[in-house]
Structures are given as structure tokens and as C-alpha cells.
Amino acid sequence: MNHPAPDWHAAANALRPDGRMLIDGQRRHAASGETFACRSPVDGRSLGDVARGAAVDVDAAVAGARRAFDERRWAGKPPAARKKILQRFAEKILAARDELALLETLDMGKPIQYSLSVDVPSTARCIAWYAEAVDKVYDEVAPTGDNALALITREPMGVIGAIVPWNYPMIMAAWKLGPALAAGNSVVLKPSEKSPLTALRLAELAVDAGLPPGVFNVVPGYGPEAGEALALHMDVDAIGFTGSTRTGRRMLEYAGRSNLKRVYNELGGKSAFVVFDDFGDVERAAETVAGSMFFNQGESCNAPSRVLVHDSIADRFVAHVAAQAPKYPPADPLDHATVMGALVDDVQLATVMGYIEAGRSEGARCAAGGRQVRTETGGYYVEPTVFDGVAPAMKIAREEIFGPVMSVLRFRTEAEAVQLANASAYGLQASVWSDNINRAHRVARALRAGTVHVNQYDEDDITVPFGGFKQSGNGRDKSLHAFDKYTELKTTWIRIDKEARP
Ligand code: NAD
Fold it and tell me: Dmax over Cα atoms in the chain, in whole Å?
């Protein structure tokens, strides 16, 4: 469909997002009447006030979700009917593409071209994919003797609390919503206080699509208020959490202090990108790592932020990566040509600049970038930054930065490369670049990460699981495996009489 590109600045000026929460199918203010200001990292403009959800609002949302579940308003519908409603929800997301993309860009700073081409379509595809699964996933019959039948069925858990971050607000919400709703649960979603707008709009679209009231509720608010109340709630059966490892620890504590609800953590990363000297196309490897690292301003959990390069090709590799950096100049996110937008807020800006400072003071060489730019806009922009000569003990080699900062380390042997790659508290993704098929397989198996890429980094699809080893989390989003998180397995034994009764 070819339609003229909207004037995004005019559209942004005309935007009046509704910041009220959505509970039981209705928009409403926080019980306290309190709000928090929503500001755009693009230029500091006000996007309006958003309801500041607190425990009392979470109570109302969970009660509504529980009622919807107990009355089987959703789980009780025929699978084909549930599929249709979720398909309609996906269609409505696509139909609202421009509005959702604009909200996402203004709220968290990513370039509009990617909100349009990645965030909105991926969100819709996720919902549509799980819609299709509703009437295609079968349960099991166990291999028992003649005198019994044992059914192994999946049942919805009940009320799912979803707590998500700000880097891909819609996509992260969809990764929880898709499987949780397809399985027949009710959901209470707590978006990040830094990016609450698209979640509220998504819930409205779901209601328009015919999702019964109470099945999908959104309570915006701060983590230690709305988030904590949801994770501590005695009537929430599971928490699907995506966010930092620090908050993930709290989720486990909340479960321990309350009803032992299931907790599925999708947490941080410091993914290793390992380039061997037998890989012929060093330039392609360098271009790929730059593209993946600087996408979304480096605010991606799976960003390949730890680059390990064989010593003999490292100078050539670093020179080429450094030459890529200027191809990602921070610019106006509302300009369709922009490829690098704004960091989400002043806190994230200070964190990223703090790491750049740490890299310099610990003795790494800044080969590209390193500065805050576009300060005159009132937004938060940092140049794509490459550090060479990084030692494993440095902060920038160990800690997740969550900004456009890449650390390059050098190695001499395969064993050293594997040891360095695995010497991390995280294990979300990794990548190995080698033209030696034995080495590529050997190293791919040795890397401790939920996803390992070989000679590429960009492939991804809703059909494959996404999640981490170690402190990158425990659950898996996406694919049919995500149903494991939002369903209980039930075994039903049925006796079969050997003889017909007289
Ligand atoms: P965060 O942990 O600060 O916040 C995530 C969510 O938790 C937000 O909704 C926040 O309000 C809430 N929260 C914060 N403190 C809380 C508390 N005390 N109690 C209850 N809820 C609380 O993380 P962030 O800064 O929003 O997101 C960045 C992190 O997310 C990075 O570490 C990134 O790697 C990770 N992430 C992981 C994945 C993945 O799939 N593994 C995907 C995207 C982002």
C-alpha cells in the first residue's frame, strides 16, 4: 500500500494521548487521582499526564481479571472464536500503525522508520501467530494400559501479571500477551513508567477487537508502586517479567514473600560476538556488529556489546567498525531517514555517559564516538561509541550499558575466546564467526547462551524461543515454548472397566 508519508512533526503536535489506565474494559483515573508527567526524550516535550497506578488500582485490575477468568468469559469461548478475536486484535494493531509508531517514537526515542517497520508489525505478527496457535495445539494422551486413560492437558493459569521495560514497549508486551491470552488467561500489564503510552492504546484496540472486559488490563505506574503491588499480589498466578537483572531478583523475592507465584524472568545481557581469523569477510562481520549494536540506540537486551576478535585481524576489524559508527548519527527520530534516535531519558543518558567515562579512565581507547550530542534539542543523544583495547576486568567489559557503546577485546586461541565469552554473569545471546565448520559448531556448542548465531546476528522470528542462560533469566518468550509459562499441566486418570457391566 503506497500512501504519502505523514508529516510526523505535525502529527506529533496534534497528538493528545489518553493516559488513563484501562481496567475491566474501561478507561479510568487512578483511585488517588494522581498522575505522572510523560515527557519525550526526543526533545523534552510533554506528552501529557499518565495515571499513577498504586496498590489499590492493581487490586481493582486483578479483581477484574479474576472475575473475567472465573466467569470463563474468555477461556470458555470456543477456540475458533478466541482465534478470531485475537486475529482482529492483530489487524487493528496494523490498522493503527502510524499512530502506534508515533506514540512509540515519541515515548522512548527510537527512529520513526523502525517503529513503523519493526515495532508495529512485529507486535501484530506476534499476536496473529499466537491467535493461529489457539486451535492448532493439541494436548496429550499418555501410553497407559488397557484399563485406564491418562490425559495430559494444559490449562490456563488464571491471572498473569506482565511487567515490561521501555526499550521495545509494544513488542515486549506482545511477547507476554500473545501466549498468555491464547492460552485463555487474563492479563494485568504494567508498562514501564518511561514508556506507558502504547500499552494503553493496545488495550483499547483489544477491547475494540472483542476481547471481553477484564481479560486485558493495563495499570501504568512506577515500579516500586504499581509493579511491586502486582508482583506481591496474592491473587496473581504468574509474573512474566522483562527488565533488568536487579529487578528480576526482586521478582523472585516478591513471589517468596507472597503466594509463590511462578516468576519468569527475561533479564539483561552482555552478549559476546566472537570473530575468528579464519572468517574471510572481516568487513561483513564488522558491519553486522555495528548494525546490531547501534540499532535502537544500543538499548537492546541482546546487543552484541562484547566483541571478541582474534588478535591478528583486530586492527583491521576495529578500523572498519570505527568507520561504520558515523553511519549511525544521532538525529531527529521523527525524520524518516534517521537511524539512531534518542536515549530514553536523562537517567539513561547519565548511565551511558558514566560508562563512557569509566572506559576512558580504566584505560580503554575510544576509537569512535564518545560524546553527548544534540543538547540544543532538549533530548538525550549519544554518539555510537567503540572502545578498543578493553580488558576483561574493566566495567565496560562486564556490565550491561544499555546504550550505543561497544567494547572490543582481543584473544589469541579458541580456548581463550570461549573462556572470555563465557566469563559473564549473563548468557542471553552470542555469536561466532568462522569459516571452519568444525570450529563454528564446536564454539557454538561451548557458548553458554540462549541463542547462538553463526556468521550472522540478525535472524530472529516469533517461531523460535528467546531467553537467556544464567543471570539473563529463566523463561523463554516466543514460540510454542512460551505456553509452558502460562499454562498448568494437568493429568486426568480415567478408569476403563475391562468388562461390560451386566
Ligand atoms: P527495569 O528492571 O528498571 O524495569 C522493568 C520493569 O520493572 C518496569 O516496568 C519497571 O517499572 C518495573 N520495576 C522496576 N522496579 C521495580 C520494583 N522494585 N518492583 C516491581 N517492578 C519494578 O528495567 P528497564 O530499565 O525498564 O529495562 C532495561 C532492562 O531490560 C535491561 O537490563 C535489558 O537487558 C532488559 N531487557 C531484557 C529483555 C529480554 O528479553 N531478556 C528484553 C528487553 C529488555
Answer: 91
